[in-house]
Amino acid sequence: MEILVISGLSGAGKSSAATYLEDMGYYTVDNMPADVILKFAEFCAQSDGRYDRIALVSDIRAGSENFASLLETMEGLRAGGVTCRLLFLSANVETIIKRYKETRRRHPLMVGGATVEDAVRREEELLRPLREHADFVLDTTQMPIGKLRSELHSLFGDKAQHSKLNVNVVSFGYKYGVPLEADLVFDVRFMPNPFYVPELREKTGMDSAVYDYVFAFEQTKRFVEKLKDMLAFLLPLYTEEGKTMLVIAIGCTGGHHRSVAITRAVTAYLNELGYSAFENHRDMTRG
User: Fold this and answer.
1) Are 8 and 127 in contact (CB under 8 A)?
2) Which whole-number Å values give the CA distances from 116 to 64, 71, 112, in the listed order?
3) What is the reported pLDDT for 6?
4) Edge-to-edge strand order for the sheet containing 166-173?
5) H-helix or E-strand containing 106?
6) Exposed / middle / buried, residue 7 (Cβ in 10 Å: 0-12, 13-18, 19+)
C-alpha cells in the first residue's frame, strides 16, 4: 500500500493537487487529521487492494498541533511496511495573499485581528519542520495549473501505461454542429462521398462496402497515415501534461459514411498503440 501525504501552505494548491492525483488513480481524502491517519490506513489495508494508492491532504485546518504528530504518524506507517511519502506545496507570501484576495476566503490562522500576511508568515513557521522532512517540495508561485498537473504526473504517474489517457473518437455530421467537448477536430469532407453512390447511400461507415469505398482512394490513405503520425506524436505529450481524457472529433457532411469509416480506423490504431480508445458515432442514425 502507498500513502502520499499532501501538506503545505494554505492557498498553495493542495486541493488541486489532490484532484489531479485522483485522476491518476489515487484514492484521495481532503482535510485528514494526523491522529486519524493510522486508523484509516488500517481500514485501507483490509480492503483487498481497493485502496492501495492513497493521497491524504493534512494541513493547518486540523489545528496547529497537527504537524507535530504528522511526522510521527508517517514514521509509524513506514515502520509497519507502508510506503509513505510527503508532498509539500509552497508559494511565496505575495502569491498566497493574491490568491486569498481572489477567492475572498479567510485564512485559517486569521484570528485576533491578524492580517492575511501575518497568517501566512505564521503558517510558514509552523510548517518549517514539515517542509524540511518532505520527500517532494513543489513551489507553485509561478506554476500554472497545467504545469502543476505535469509535475505531479512526472513524480507519481505510471509512465509505462498509456491506458491512463482515455480517448473518445467521435464521428459527427457538420450539418448537426461540431461536438462541444471536442479537443481535436478533423474535417474529412474532402474525401469522395459514398452518399452519391446509389447502392451505398442507405448504408453507413460500419458496413464493409462503405468502408472499402472510402479507403479505395489515395487521398484517404495518405490522410489517415498523416493523422496517425500526428496522433502518435501528440498523445504522449497530452499524457505527459497529465490529461486523462481526450476527445477527437471527425466530421463529414451528415455523419453517416466517411467520418464513421475514419473514426473506426483511428480508434483501432490507438488501441494498437496501447491507449484506451473508444469510438462513438454521434449522428450515424440521424437524418
Assistant:
1) yes
2) 16, 27, 12
3) 96
4) 184-187, 245-252, 166-173, 276-281
5) none
6) buried
User: Closest Cα to residue 54, out of 3, 19, 5?
Assistant: 3
Closest by CA to 103, choosing from 187, 33, 12, 24, is: 12
Question: What three-state secondary structure class fits 65?
Answer: coil
Mean pLDDT per 10-residue interval, the chain, length 287 residues: 94 93 91 91 86 92 80 92 95 92 85 89 92 94 84 76 76 96 97 97 97 98 98 91 88 98 97 92 92
Report residue 162 as a C-alpha cell: 498509456
Residue spans per domain, the chain = 2-156, 163-281
Task: Give the Cβ contact number of residue 15 at 10 Å.
Answer: 15
Fold classification of 2-156 is Rossmann fold (3.40.50)
| 16's grid cell | 488541486
Grid coordinates representing 217 are: 482512394
81-98: b (≥16 Cβ within 10 Å) or e: ebebbbbbbbbbeebbbe
Length of the chain in terms of residues written: 287
Backbone angles phi, psi at 93, to 5 degrees: -60, -45
Distance (Å, rounded) from C-alpha 202 to C-alpha 197? 10
The residues pairing with 85 across neighbouring beta strands, listed in sequence order, are: 4
- What is the longest distance spanned by two Cα atoms in the chain? 82
Nine cell digits for residue 160: 509505462
Q: What is the spatial distance between Cα 228 and Cα 149, in angstroms, rounded to a whole number?
A: 26
